[in-house]
Amino acid sequence: MRYHTLALAAAFCLLPGLTPAQVIPPARSPVGSAPTADPTTTTNRALTLEQAWARAHSASTTLHAKQAQLVAAEGLATDAASWLANNPQVSAERTRRSVPSSSATERRNEWSAGVSQAVEIAGQPGHRREAANAALQALRLEIDDMVRQQRAEVSERFYRVLALQQRVEIEAQAMRLFEDSARAVEKRRGAGEDTRLDANVAVVEAERARNQLATVQEQLLDARAALATALQLPPSESIEASGSLSPSPLGYSLEVLLQSVPALPRLQALNAREQSAQAKLRLERAARYPDVTVGMNVGREGPGDARERLTTFTVSVPLPLFKHNAAGIGQASTELAQAQIERRAAERDLPAQVHALWTKLQSLQNRIERLQRSVLPALADNERLSVKSRQAGQIGLLELIVTTRQTLDARRDLVDALLDYQTTRTALEAAAGWPAQL
Asked: By residue range, what is the domain housing residue 41?
């Protein structure tokens, strides 16, 4: 019967992947059993999403650089916790004095010692401690937020690799199908059963399938390189993403996510930065008041038979006539205004972002359900009908190719929709700070 080989090939390659309840399984190799392979791959490393998170957390240079700033912030908080901002000053003086007299020159050894301390009188120590502690808290929250953002970035790159692996499997199946079709049509053309047009169409479709497979393989190489960069893996290792793109139960609602936004580390860090800026402004304003320096000195002076013991108390205050710390106050005011603007912008934008991502996620979920419930079963039915019609000689090669392409496009659409779903869900949970504890 004419085109029997082509019909069987189409049924074998396309029908198993189109049952309505079936989601395309995770890929185990970038090209399935296709004859072409990735020539740059030297070592394969199979990773799950959790393993990728752990690897990125331990290898991230950006995160380590941020954590290194904790030492400076903790040191600043330690200095701010001291009783006084300035250390006391100790002074000592020894004088050898020659005093002329009627009989001979008298030499006297005199000495003095003292201690002085500058004291802030406008509450600067409290403002300094508040600013340092708030800055330290903000830095720790920023590190937590960076960990969340890093996990979201790794998740997006991981899911892209996983989706492209599945796309490569689809394109490899399509290439095998159209190559088998081209060979079968060429044999029938040699036997005089098919026309040259049918043979040309089959050759073109086979070449298009090979080009599509090569394109997706190139995209997979780029995606793997991007993921390897985030994981700090050597160039000789190729990543095999191990997991599933299938949607899982969310476990939260839009109201729950919106309630978790105020507890987001990013917002808390911005609040802490604003508190630190407010304390710095109060500190700079208090710096207009001069520090009072108090001191005490003791010493011995006078001739040996009439030595005097001196005890002196001193108080010195600089007169604030010319310098009023206008530059420091202006800089602190600018930093406070910027911190307030960033905090208000984040409080306004994050709930809107969560709402928008939630709406998009629901739309993607509905699209996936429609593909699995309506489109894919209908295409599977069309494929079975077209195979039977082709076996019976009721349709031509072009009609069968159209049906086959529709089926392949539907499978591609499903993979793309699953990828969009997972990346949108990742962005949504990162924007809402879900879960509260990593």
From this structure: 4-85+123-277+344-432
Domain annotation covers residue 37: yes
CATH number at residue 161: 1.20.1600.10
Q: Which of 279, 231, 239, 220 is nearest to 419 (CA)?
A: 220
Number of domains in the chain: 1
Tell me if 49 is assigned to some domain: yes
The whole-angstrom distance between residue 320's C-alpha and the CA centroid of its chain comes to 49
Rg (CA), the chain: 39
Determine the angle formed by the axes of helices 326-370 and 265-286, rounding to 10 degrees.
170
Please choose, from the candidates 431, 404, 117, 9, the residue with its C-alpha nearest in 3D space to the C-alpha of residue 262: 431
Q: Is the bond into 435 cis (omega within 30 degrees of 0)? A: yes
**How large a percentage of the chain has pLDDT more than 90?**
52
Burial classification of residue 139, based on how many CB atoms lie within 10 Å of its CB (0-12 exposed, 13-18 middle, 19 or more buried): buried
Least confident stretch, 160-169, 386-395, 409-418? 386-395
On whether residue 99 sits in a domain, the answer given is no
In sequence order, the β-bridge partners of residue 110 are: 95
Give dist(CA 82, CA 124) in Å, integer.
12
pLDDT for 96 equals 84
- Does residue 420 sit within a domain? yes
- pTM, 2 dp: 0.78
Q: Are strands 237-241 and 308-316 parallel, antiparallel or unpaired?
A: unpaired
